[in-house]
Write a structure and sequence with these properties.
Layout (H helix, E strand, L loop, with lengths): L1 H19 L33 E2 L1 H11 L4 H18 L2 E11 L5 E12 L5 E11 L3 E13 L9 H67 L5 H36 L8 E2 L12 H11 L1 H23 L3 E12 L3 E12 L5 H68 L5 H36 L36
Parallel strand pairs: 1-6
Antiparallel strand pairs: 2-3, 3-4, 4-5, 5-7, 7-8
Helix pairs in contact: 2-4, 3-4, 4-5, 4-7, 4-9, 6-8, 7-8, 8-9
Amino acid sequence: MRIAVVLLAAAMVLGTAAAWAGSNADLRPEWSVGQDLVSAASLAVTPPIAAPKSLTLREAVNLALARNTGFRAAINNLLSAREALYVARKQWHLVLTTTATKDQGSDLSTEFGGALDYSLFTGANFSVTAELDRLGSQESSDTITANVRQPLLAGAGSASNAYESVRAARNAYRSALLEYFMSRQNLILSVVNSYFSVVQQRESVKIQKERVQLAEQTVKEMKIRLDEGMIIEVDLLNAQQQLASAQAAEVQTKQSYEEAMDQLMLQLGLKIGGVSELVSEVEYRPEPQDLEADTQQALKLRPELRLAELAIENGEAAVRIARSHRLPTLDLLGSWQRFSNSATDSTWSVGLGASVPIGARELQQNYLESQWALLLARQSLEDTRQQVVADIRSQVRAAGAAQLQVDLADQGVKIADRTVLQSKRLVEEDLRTNRDLLDAQNNLRDSKLGLLNSKTNYFLAMMRLKVAMGLDVAVALPQDAPPAAPPAQPAPAPSTAPEPPRSKG
């Protein structure tokens, strides 16, 4: 009996250690972006606050991570999965009871009881119950019963309920960690888009305002020239029509700017209607791309691939459990009981229990369906690999095209700048009119805005490429400029007062 108990205890310990092994291998270092610091405090209600006077891109991202309501779904899922894993690892249950009764003509009767139930990762179940009865102060009895059941075939080891509950909860927690990382990536990318959309709209407003001023100046000049008989009335009407078009475009551009700013405020959890000065600029640093290296990096780091692997692990567990359910049941049983009243008596027993399922078609069906689901999960992993490769190729092409657009836009700015210089010289020599100079200046402004947009598009393309590679996109954010140093204080002028005489001594 003692040898059987020792062997059973050893099997329980080994099974527990096997179930807990590897539970800390949750994330690759590249995916660890602070998930372990997430707590329930992250879900606290945060009323919108006033927009700051100025806002860098990194500050905007930090505000969104702390206050964006959509991102809190990923936080909630992570916290729930973490708590579920903690609960799944707690395999014991303890219940304490007490009852006091008094019948007519009898003494007070008090009953105390407790039951401890413990499930092990080998599939074993161990339970202990204790009862203490007292009738007044003269009579008392107590009973202690211990039972153990260890499956040897069906439901044993990794096919046991206890083992599977922990394994499933651990995989669900790992999935929540990955989904948190992916949601964070998407939020940062969305904030970057919104931030620079506001910057682009702001520059468009400036340019459109200058166009209106130039159009107003042109109308005034046309009126003077019409009064002097140098032009006909249709020229003035054309200038007034261009002014009206510029004013309409200015109204639309201002509306687009305000809507873009409201969208940014909403993402950051700031009060709608607020306006912040966006001070971060696009850092244009062209990077050479290696399609093969980027593809290998993506196949190693994309979290979607790890999620697909976790789905395969879940499918393999389902097959393992369904296969176990088809086996005959063979359980090692043991019990021990101690009863004490006026005398003490104890008994124990050990034995085997067996049952064989016959004609259980649903068990075969469950096994086949679990195999089919596993095949689908494995095929999904292959499809995800192909999608990752296609995504990388697309993002590399987009980054290359965006870089080419920057080069072309830069050439356009240089050409437009030379055109303005030549137009000024031709106007001074009376070979061109002021209208030609104004058109050249408008083209220069459009070219500069186009260059800004091209650099922004390249920066966004590189951000999307890093996301496609599975890298933390926050690392690619522009560095905030260091605060300006305070002006140096002038050194105090040397004193010209005569030095007091030193005392002798």
